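Readers of this paper often ask what the protein records in our data store actually look like. Below, we set out a record of this kind in full and without editing:
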Amino acid sequence: MTDMKTFAGQTALVTGASRGIGAATAIALAEAGAHVILVARKVKALEEVEDKIHAAGGTSTIAPLDLTEADAIARLAGAIAGRWETLDILCLSAAYLPELTPISQVDPKQFTQALTTNIISTQAMLSAFDSMLRRAENGRIIGLTSSVGASPRAFWGAYGSTKAAFDNLLLTYADEVEKLGNLRVAIVDPGATRTEMRARAYPGEKPETVKPPEKVAERIVALLQEDFPTGHRERVEG
């Protein structure tokens, strides 16, 4: 573990924490001293991330959860509020990528899954943790987006449209809370990153040609230490 415990005494919640950027961010936040709540569907994968955190001297709590289940987020928020008074950091990393296909051939079930995971659960998370985030001394929200949300691309419409809505939700929320305290919101586009989702989208790509998730996690942790304006947006290059 690093000696720089920047987030000592703080609590962070990371969705999509079982793999990829979410897992890397959770580990990096724990290294910086935060107690990290790990949220994802797969228990075994969450336990593996938690083992890495604990082996390095960090602390975490796993919260196996399907964000798309009715009332799941409300139950999670209730359990967390019963243990902690505030939530200092919320990292929204969970996302669902439907099959890349022309708009005319989008699978309704996959599109519904993307809408529920990428948009509806985001609003539910903001609603459920609003009060805990605003009670924090310097609450921070980081939302992981995609370039196809801002710049439409052929065959990416089902996913891109959900990310456009994701961005809109976060930026609207940022505008609403800007003058109510120190809570700030940032959107991070990780760019080309070595993840399972990326491998599905680009099956012929050599993984070593794109940056690892740890590179994005490093930037997220650094950003959380900066005095960024709410509504900040950036792309992680490299």
The chain has a mean pLDDT of 95. Residues 3 and 50 are 20 Å apart (CA to CA). Helices lie at 20-31, 43-55, 72-81, 108-135, 147-150, 157-177, 196-201, 213-224. The chain is about 45% helix and 15% strand.
